[in-house]
Write a structure and sequence with these properties.
The structure holds three protein chains of three kinds. Helix content of chain A is 60%, strand content 1%. Chain A is mostly helical. Chain A is globular and about 90 Å long. The N and C termini of chain A lie far apart (55 Å). By secondary structure, chain B is α+β, with helices and mostly antiparallel strands. Chain B has two domains: 78 residues, Helix Hairpins (Orthogonal Bundle), CATH 1.10.287.90; 122 residues, Sandwich (Immunoglobulin-like), CATH 2.60.40.420. Chain B has a five-stranded mixed beta sheet with strand order 3-2-1-5-8, with no helix packed on it. In chain B, a hairpin with a 4-residue loop joins β6 and β7. The longest helix of chain B is centred in the first third of the chain and has 32 residues. Chain C is mainly β. Chain C has one domain: Cupredoxins -  blue copper proteins (Immunoglobulin-like, Sandwich). Chain C is built from two helices and 16 strands. In chain C, β10 and β11 form a beta hairpin. The radius of gyration of chain C is 23 Å and the shape is globular. The termini of chain C are far apart. Classes of the chains: A mainly alpha, B alpha+beta, C mainly beta. Chains in contact: A-B, A-C, B-C.
C-alpha cells in the first residue's frame, strides 16, 4: 500500500520537484519543505523560549526580593512598574501578567512548537522514508498561522490594561470580565492568539497523521517505526482531538467578554466550572502532547548512545498508546478542589493513579536500555540521561497530588509548580536539548561544539535542580502559587531566604543558557563538518546527506528491520541500519532431521 | 531554609489522616526514587564507554514488562484505596455541625457570618467578621462557602483544609480543630490584583472562651 | 495555477491575516470624547459680566446611622484614626447641611467650551479612606491618585461611558488618570479594602462643586443666563433647580433632600449632553 501511495504522491507533486533553484522567498520564507519549516519553527520557538525565560526572571525578582526596586525596572512603563525615588517596583497586576504569559508562552509558543513543530516536521518524513509531508503547503500554513498568533500574544503587553493576568489556565469568572482584573483588550488578544495557534496545531496534526499512515516506505511496518515517530504520531492524534475543545472554550470565553454571553459568568446564569472542565479536558491531553515527543526523542538518543536496542520496544509503543488513551480520562485531577462532586474526585484519582503506570513502564525500559550498554557520554546522551533522571522526580511527585486528600493541602502550592517544572523543564526541555544537539548535524551539516555543550549541561543540570527541588519544600510549607507578595502571610515569611536562593539560582540558570545559544550559532559556521551518519545510527534520516536535499531520498528506501539494531550479531559494526539489505539469510532455527525407522527395528 | 519533607504541624481531626497518607506516599516514592536514581547513576558509571566494551544485544523481557507493570499498578491502586477513605471523610461525610457559619470570599477579603445567639443563620441577630474566623475547638465547624465575584480558594493550612469558593454555588466545607491557637486563613486561587493580601486569621478557642467571644460580638454588632 | 500566481495568492492571504489581526486590536471602549460633534469655539468668560450661584444643600428627616468601619485587618490604617471611622454614604445633615453632594451646571453652557485645566486634582488614599469622598474634575483633567498609606491599594474605577481602569499601588506613589467623556458619577473602589469607595464627577466645564460639611456650595464666574443646576447624592438621588444668573449678582440656590428620597435610584454614568437641552430624565434608569 505504501509504495503505491508514495508513487502517487511523487507524480502529483511532480511539477514541484523540478531541479531548479527556488527563489529566496519560496525557500526560506514561504517554505514548503518540511526541513525548512522545522527550522522556522525552531528559530521562532527558541526566541519565545528566551522571552518566557525573561518573564520568569522578572517574576523571580519579585519573589526573591519582594517589593524592592528591580534593576532595569525604570525602563518599563508605569503600567507595569511603579516609579519610586529608589527605582521601579513591580505592580501586582504586572506580576499576574508575568505569570500568565510565562506559562502561556512557554507551553504554547516554546515547548509545543519545539517538540511538535521542529521535531515533528524534521523527523517524520525522514524517518519513515518519505520525500516530504503529505501536504507541504498545509505545512507552510501551519507555520504561518503560528507567527501572527505569537505576534498578537506579544503585542498584548503593549495595550492599555496590560497583558492577560488570569493565569495560563485563565479561570472564569476572573478571565471573563475585565472588571475583575483591569485587563480588557489584553485578555481578548490572548484568546484570539491561542485560537489562531490552535488552528496552526490542528492543520499540523492532520498533516502528521496522514503522512505517517500513508507515506511509509516499503518495509516500514508500524513496529519498525522509530519511537520518536511513534510518539509524534500519537501526539498528533491528541492534538487533533484536544485542540478543538480548547478552541471552542476560548471562543465561548471571548463571547462572554465581548458580547455579553453567559457561558461562564454566574451573574447571567453561567457556570464557572464549565470553563474548567472544558479547559482541562483539553489541558490534560495537552500535557501529554508536551511530554510524549520528548519521550520519543529520549528513546532515540539513549538507544543510539548506549549502542543497545531499546529495551521492550513493543511495550514502549503500548505505553505511548496507553498514556495517550488514559490521558483523556484524568482531567478532573486538576479540579479536585474545584467544587465538583467529590465522588468524581475518587474516580479521577483512580484513573490518575493508573496513568502513572505506563510512564513507569517507560522509565524502567529506559533504565534497562542503559543497563549493560556501551554508554557514549557525549552531550546528547547527557541531556537524555538527565531527562530520565528528572522525569522520575516529576513522575513520582505526581503521585502525591494524585491522592485526593494529600492534594487538599498541596493543590495550588509550589509543590505543584515543582512538579510542572520537573516534567516540563527537567523532562521536555532537556529532551529538546538532546534532540537539537543530536539532529543538529542533520539540520546544519555540522556538529555542535561538544565542549561548550557539556559545560552548559553541567551548569544547567545543577542550577536547574537548585531552583526547582526546593520548590517542593516551599509547597509543603504551604506557600501558594501565583502570589505576588508571600510575606503578607506571617507563616510564610520564614520562606524568604529560600525564595531568594531560588531567585539567584534562576538568574544564573538563565545566564547559563547563553552557552547553548553560543554553541548553537557558533557551530553553524565553525562546527566540525558532519557526514551522513555521525552518530552511527540506524534510522533512515542518517542514510542521506547532512542536510538532506530537497526530496530527501534519491531513491525509494526499503526497510528491512527495526530501528534499534545496535550491537547486533548480524552486523560487523555496532549498528545495523534499517535500510541495509541483509548480508546473509535470516538465521534458521535448526530443524531436527526427521527420524526414519530403519528396517532393522529400534 | 527548611529542606525537610516532613509536613509542618497540623491541628484538625482529619489532618492526622491526611498527613499519614502523605507519609505513606513519601516512603514509597522516596524508596523508588533512591532505587531508580541510584540504578541510573550506577549504570552510567559502570557502563560508560571504555575501549573494547560491547553493549549487550537485548531486546527486552516480557517477564520484566509484566513485573514492572503489575507491581506499580498494585502499589498505586493501593495508595488510591487508602486515599479514598480519607477523602470521603473530608469531602463527602460532613459531620453534624457544632457551629454553622457562612464564609464569603470576594476581592479581596473573607467575610464570616455567624448565627448569633439564636443559633440560626439568616436571622437578624447574625453578625459578621472580616478576615477573621473564630471557632471553638473540638466542634465540627460546618461552613457554607460562597463567592461574590470570582473563584477564590479557602485555605486553612494548619487544618489541612482547602476548598474553592465558586460564585453561583454554595459549597460545604468543614473542619474540627483540636487545639486552641491562632492559625492562618489564605486564598489559594488567583483572584486578581489583591490575591496576595487575602489573608486572615483563624482563632480557635476553648468552648467557654468561644461562647464569651460570640456573645460579646453579637452585642457589639446589634444594629 | 502557475507558481507565481500561487505565490501572490499565498502572500495576499497572509497579508490579510495580519491586517485583520491588526484591526481586531482596535479601540473597543467608548473612549472618544464627542469626536463626532464639532466643539464650540473656546470662549473666555468675561469676568466683568459674570455672576455667581451660591447656596446650601440640606436634608430634612431622620439622619441615618452610618456603620463603623472595622479596619482590624489593616493595622497600619487603623492606627491613623483617633476615632473609629464610619462609612461615608451619608455625611452631615445634623444641622441640616448635607455634605458630599455634587452640584454642577447641567444645562445652559451648550454654546461654550472651556480649556482643560493643566493642574491636577488629587484623590488621596490616607488611613485606608479616600480623601475626598466625592471629587469633581473636568473632562481630560488629570486626577492624581496618591497612596499615602505605604501599603497595597488598588483603584478600581467602573464608569459606564468612559473606559474603566483597575490599577494597583503597592507603596507610597502616585498614578495619573483622566476621563475623556463627561460622566456623573464614576464609582471608584478599592478591592483590597472593601469599605473604601469614592465618586468622581466628570464635567466638561469648571462650574461644579462638592458641598462641605455645612452643605454650602458656590459656583462662581458664570456668564449671565438661564441654567439648570443638578445636585447629586450617592444615596438620595438627584435634584435639579432652575436659576438665572445676573451680571455681578449672586443667585441663591437651595436643594432640600428628604428622607423620602433615600434609596431612590441614583444615576451613574449619565453623560451630560449639553447639545440637547431637553437632556435626560434624572431618575428613569
Amino acid at each position: 500500500m505504501s509504495t503505491i501511495e508514495q508513487e502517487m504522491v511523487r507524480t502529483a507533486e511532480g511539477g514541484h520537484h523540478d531541479h531548479h533553484e527556488l527563489p529566496f522567498i519560496r525557500k526560506y520564507i514561504f517554505a514548503t519543505d518540511h526541513k525548512m519549516i522545522a527550522k522556522q519553527f525552531m528559530f521562532v520557538s527558541l526566541f519565545f523560549l528566551v522571552i518566557g525565560g525573561l518573564l520568569a526572571t522578572m517574576m523571580r525578582w519579585q519573589l526573591g526580593f519582594p517589593n524592592q526596586p528591580m534593576p532595569g525596572g525604570m525602563l518599563l512603563p508605569d503600567a507595569m512598574m511603579a516609579p519610586t525615588p529608589n527605582g521601579a517596583i513591580m505592580l501586582p497586576e504586572f506580576y499576574n501578567s508575568l505569570l500568565t504569559m510565562h506559562g502561556t508562552i512557554m507551553i504554547f509558543f516554546a515547548i509545543m512548537p519545539l517538540l511538535v513543530g521542529l521535531f515533528g516536521n524534521l523527523l517524520i518524513p525522514l524517518q519513515i522514508g518519505a520525500e516530504d509531508m503529505a501536504f507541504p503547503r498545509l505545512n507552510m500554513i501551519s507555520f504561518w498561522l503560528a507567527v501572527p498568533a505569537g505576534i498578537l500574544m506579544l503585542a498584548s503587553f503593549a495595550v492599555e490594561g496590560g497583558a492577560a493576568g488570569a493565569g495560563w489556565t485563565s479561570y472564569a469568572p476572573l478571565s471573563a470580565s475585565g472588571e475583575w482584573t483591569g485587563v480588557y483588550l489584553g485578555q481578548q488578544l490572548w484568546l484570539v492568539s491561542l485560537t489562531i495557534l490552535g488552528f496552526s496545531s490542528l492543520v499540523g496534526a492532520v498533516n502528521y497523521i496522514s503522512t505517517v499512515i500513508n507515506m511509509r516506505a516499503p518495509g516500514m511496518t508500524w513496529f519498525r517505526l522509530p519511537l520518536s515517530t511513534w510518539a509524534l504520531f500519537i501526539t498528533a492524534i491528541l492534538i487533533l482531538l484536544a485542540i478543538p475543545i480548547l478552541a471552542g472554550a476560548l471562543i465561548m470565553l471571548l463571547f462572554d467578554q465581548t458580547i455579553g454571553t453567559g457561558f461562564f459568568r454566574p451573574e447571567v446564569g453561567g457556570e464557572p466550572l464549565l470553563w474548567q472542565h472544558l479547559f482541562w479536558f483539553f489541558g490534560h491531553p495537552e500535557v501529554y502532547i508536551l511530554i510524549l515527543p520528548a519521550m520519543g526523542i529520549a528513546s532515540e538518543v539513549l538507544s543510539n548512545r548506549a549502542r543497545k536496542p531499546i529495551f521492550g520496544y513493543h511495550s514502549m509503543v503500548l505505553a505511548l498508546i496507553g498514556i495517550g488513551f488514559l490521558g483523556w480520562i484524568v482531567w478532573g485531577h486538576h479540579m479536585f478542589m474545584s467544587g465538583m462532586n467529590p465522588l468524581l474526585g475518587t474516580s479521577f484519582m483512580i484513573s490518575t493513579m493508573a496513568i502513572a503506570v505506563p510512564s513507569a513502564i517507560k522509565t524502567f525500559n529506559w533504565l534497562a536500555t542503559v543497563w549493560k550498554g556501551d554508554l557514549h557520554l557525549d552531550s546528547p546522551m547527557l541531556y537524555a540521561l538527565a531527562f530520565v533522571s528528572m522525569f522520575i522526580i516529576g513522575g513520582l511527585s505526581g503521585i502525591f497530588m494524585a491522592s485526593t486528600p494529600v492534594d487538599i493541602y498541596i493543590h495550588d502550592t509550589y509543590f505543584i509548580v515543582a512538579h510542572i517544572h520537573y516534567v516540563l523543564f527537567g523532562g521536555s526541555l532537556f529532551a529538546i536539548f538532546a534532540g537539537i544537539t543530536f539532529w543538529y548535524p542533520k539540520m546544519f551539516g555540522r556538529m555542535m561544539n561538544e565542549r561548550i555543550n557539556k559545560i552548559h549541561f553541567a551548569f544547567t543540570f545543577v542550577l536547574y535542580n537548585l531552583v526547582f527541588w526546593p520548590m517542593h519544600n516551599l509547597g509543603l510549607q504551604g506557600m501558594m502559587r501565583r502570589i505576588y507578595d508571600f510575606t503578607q502571610y506571617e507563616y510564610l515569611a520564614p520562606l524568604q531566604p529560600m525564595n531568594q536562593f531560588i531567585s539567584i539560582c534562576v538568574f544564573l540558570l538563565v545566564a547559563t543558557q547563553a552557552l547553548y545559544a553560543f554553541s548553537f550559532f557558533w557551530s553553524m559556521f565553525r562546527g566540525e563538518k558532519a557526514g551522513n551518519n555521525p552518530w552511527d545510527s540506524n534510522t533512515l534520516e542518517w542514510t542521506v546527506p547532512s542536510p538532506p536535499p530537497h526530496g530527501n531520498f534519491p531513491e525509494m528506501p526499503v526497510v528491512y528491520r527495526g530501528p534499534y539494531e545496535y550491537s547486533s550479531p548480524e552486523s560487523e559494526k555496532d549498528f545495523y541500519p534499517q535500510t541495509q539489505p541483509p548480508s546473509k539469510p535470516p538465521v534458521q532455527e535448526l530443524i531436527p532431521e526427521p527420524v526414519t525407522p530403519t528396517p532393522e527395528g529400534f | 531554609m527548611n529542606w525537610s519533607w516532613i509536613l509542618p504541624p497540623s491541628f484538625s481531626t482529619v489532618s492526622g489522616d491526611i498527613d499519614g497518607i502523605y507519609m505513606v506516599i513519601l516512603w514509597i516514592t522516596g524508596i523508588t526514587f533512591f532505587i531508580t536514581e541510584g540504578l541510573l547513576f550506577y549504570f552510567i558509571f559502570k557502563y560508560r564507554h571504555k575501549e573494547g566494551r560491547k553493549a549487550t544485544y537485548d531486546h527486552g523481557s516480557t517477564k520484566m514488562e509484566i513485573a514492572w507493570t503489575m507491581i506499580p499498578l498494585v502499589i498505586v491502586l493501593w495508595i488510591g484505596a487508602l486515599s479514598k477513605g480519607v477523602w470521603d471523610t473530608v469531602k463527602v461525610d460532613v459531620p453534624p455541625a457544632g457551629l454553622e457559619i457562612i464564609v464569603t470570599g470576594k476581592q479581596f477579603e473573607w467575610t464570616v457570618t455567624y448565627p448569633g445567639p439564636d443559633g440560626a443563620l439568616g436571622t437578624s441577630d447574625d453578625f459578621e467578621t472580616l478576615n477573621e474566623l473564630h471557632a471553638p475547638e473540638d466542634q465540627a465547624v460546618v461552613i457554607t462557602l460562597r463567592s461574590e465575584d470570582v473563584i477564590h480558594s479557602f485555605f486553612l493550612p494548619e487544618m489541612r483544609i482547602k476548598q474553592d469558593a465558586v460564585p453561583g454555588q454554595d459549597i460545604t466545607v468543614w473542619f474540627e480543630a483540636i487545639q486552641p491557637g491562632d492559625y492562618t486563613i489564605g486564598c489559594a486561587e488567583l483572584c486578581g490584583i489583591g490575591h496576595t493580601t487575602m489573608n486572615g486569621t483563624l482563632t480557635v478557642y476553648t468552648a467557654a472562651d468561644f461562647e464569651a467571644w460570640s456573645s460579646s460580638q453579637a452585642q457589639q454588632q446589634q444594629p | 495555477m502557475s507558481e507565481r500566481l500561487g505565490e501572490l495568492r499565498n502572500t495576499a492571504l497572509l497579508v490579510s491575516v495580519f491586517v485583520i489581526a491588526g484591526c481586531g486590536g482596535g479601540d473597543g471602549g467608548g473612549g472618544d470624547a464627542g469626536a463626532a460633534d464639532a466643539a464650540p469655539a473656546e470662549s473666555p468668560v468675561d469676568a466683568a459680566t459674570a455672576g455667581n450661584v451660591a447656596g446650601i444643600v440640606t436634608f430634612s428627616g431622620t439622619t441615618p446611622m452610618m456603620a463603623e468601619i472595622n479596619m482590624g485587618s489593616e493595622a497600619t490604617c487603623a492606627s491613623k484614626h483617633s476615632t473609629t471611622p464610619t462609612e461615608e454614604g451619608f455625611v452631615g445633615g445634623e444641622n441640616g447641611g448635607l455634605a458630599n453632594v455634587f452640584v454642577y451646571v447641567k444645562e445652559g453652557l451648550e454654546s461654550l467650551s472651556f480649556p482643560t485645566p493643566t493642574a491636577a486634582v488629587v484623590l488621596n488614599q490616607d488611613g485606608c479612606m479616600y480623601r475626598p469622598h466625592v471629587l469633581g474634575v473636568q473632562v481630560g483633567q488629570d486626577i492624581t491618585i496618591r497612596n499615602s498609606d505605604g501599603l497595597l491599594h488598588n483603584i478600581n474605577a467602573s464608569p459606564t461611558e468612559n473606559r474603566g481602569f483597575n490599577v494597583s499601588q503597592p507603596v507610597n506613589m502616585e498614578t495619573n488618570r483622566s476621563f475623556p467623556v463627561a460622566e456623573v458619577m464614576v464609582p471608584v473602589r478599592c478591592d483590597v479594602h472593601g469599605w473604601m469607595n469614592s465618586y468622581i464627577g466628570v464635567v466638561d466645564h469648571p462650574y461644579f462643586a462638592v458641598s462641605g460639611s455645612d452643605g454650602s456650595v458656590s459656583l462662581d464666574g458664570l456668564p449671565p443666563g438661564d441654567y439648570v443646576i443638578e445636585a447629586w447624592h450617592e444615596q438620595l438621588g438627584t435634584m435639579t433647580s432652575n436659576v438665572t444668573v445676573t451680571t455681578g449678582g449672586t443667585t441663591e440656590i437651595s436643594f432640600e433632600f428628604t428622607e423620602v428620597m433615600a434609596g431612590s435610584p441614583v444615576p451613574m454614568g449619565e453623560p451630560i449632553d449639553l447639545l440637547h437641552p431637553d437632556g435626560h430624565q434624572a431618575v428613569d434608569h
